[in-house]
């Protein structure tokens, strides 16, 4: 199959075993199969500590699988590539750089001439609603504004794949809903494939084409749900649709069981 027609991401029987400080092996991800199509928005939910972030690090190339294969655009992941953008819970801005300089950093790093990088950066700053804030430093912005800078700094690199690890979880509820809407708008214009890890089942349904439920650790795919809600979506209104509530119930029946298993293990550990 040519690289052009292959899925954006494929994990085939991927496992990851870490060595803990005591020297004992710890399997975070086991025999995980997952395919993400081009332009698809996939959300990953699962109980705390099950291995969601580890799955993202395998796709990013930051970690290698102990077993199995991880392919991006049909080719095995070999280190961190330029096709992949990340947005994490923590702000990934450089505190000593202005907004403009933060957003220009990626293109400059890739060798884009200064004037062109500046133009692209200004365009993305405007698209995330921060025109006029170019000369501010991150500490002079709100949490939501800093997150917008992080989004602009990611999208400016035209990523084919966007890996997002609880990107909005540190924000207040209203800002979070706004950012979700903005993310959908930005994403719909790019055709990027997204893997979005979250603890928030509502958020996952509102955003995604498919929601992947992970098992209690070690993570493997328990069930995948197609989200047949119409697009374009606004998260606050989509949540009120009867179909949304129906999907929520179905997924919670699957996820809730894994959360319970994780809790019981925790209780046994404490006892
Ligand atoms: N570098 C590492 N060395 C050893 N163990 C690790 C390492 N990274 C993660 N783990 C362990 O692997 C398991 C999965 O961690 P991971 O961060 O992937 O879970 P998660 O599902 O993203 O958690 P959360 O929902 O709480 O963010 C955890 O038990 C964690 O302690």
From TrEMBL:
GO molecular function, one term: glycosyltransferase activity
Signal peptide start and end residues: none
Domain ABC transporter: 9-241
Classification via InterPro entries: AAA+_ATPase (IPR003593), ABC_transporter-like_ATP-bd (IPR003439), ABC_transporter-like_CS (IPR017871), ABC_transporter_ATP-bind (IPR050166), P-loop_NTPase (IPR027417)
Pfam family membership, one: ABC_tran
Keywords annotated in UniProt: ATP-binding, Glycosyltransferase, Nucleotide-binding, Transferase, Transport
UniProt keyword ATP-binding, yes or no: yes
PROSITE patterns attached to this UniProt entry: ABC_TRANSPORTER_1, ABC_TRANSPORTER_2
Stored PANTHER family: ALIPHATIC SULFONATES IMPORT ATP-BINDING PROTEIN SSUB, TAURINE IMPORT ATP-BINDING PROTEIN-RELATED
Protein name listed in UniProt: Mannosyltransferase
Organism (species): Streptomyces mangrovisoli
């Amino acid at each position: 199959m040519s690289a052009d027609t292959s899925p954006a991401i494929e994990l085939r029987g991927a496992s990851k075993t870490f060595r803990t400080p005591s020297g004992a092996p710890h399997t975070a991800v086991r025999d995980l199969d997952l395919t993400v199509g081009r332009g698809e928005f996939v959300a990953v939910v699962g109980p705390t500590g099950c291995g969601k972030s580890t799955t993202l690090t395998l796709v990013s190339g930051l970690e290698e699988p102990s077993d199995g294969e991880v392919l991006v655009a049909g080719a095995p992941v070999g280190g961190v590539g330029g096709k992949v953008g990340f947005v994490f819970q923590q702000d990934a801005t450089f505190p000593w750089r202005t907004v403009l300089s933060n957003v220009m950093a990626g293109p400059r790093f890739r060798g884009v001439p200064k004037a062109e990088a500046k133009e692209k950066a200004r365009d993305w700053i405007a698209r995330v609603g921060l025109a006029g804030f170019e000369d501010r430093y991150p500490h002079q912005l709100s949490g939501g504004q800093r997150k917008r800078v992080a989004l602009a700094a990611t999208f400016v690199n035209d990523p084919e794949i966007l890996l997002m690890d609880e990107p909005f979880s540190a924000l207040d509820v209203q800002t979070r809903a706004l950012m979700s809407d903005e993310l959908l708008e930005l994403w719909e214009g790019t055709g990027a494939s997204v893997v979005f890890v979250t603890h928030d089942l509502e958020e996952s349904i509102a955003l995604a084409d498919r929601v992947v439920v992970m098992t209690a650790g070690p993570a493997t795919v328990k069930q995948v749900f197609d989200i047949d809600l119409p697009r374009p979506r606004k998260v606050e209104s989509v949540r009120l649709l009867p179909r949304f509530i129906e999907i929520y119930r179905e997924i919670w029946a699957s996820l809730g069981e894994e959360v319970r298993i994780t809790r019981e293990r925790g209780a046994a550990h404490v006892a």
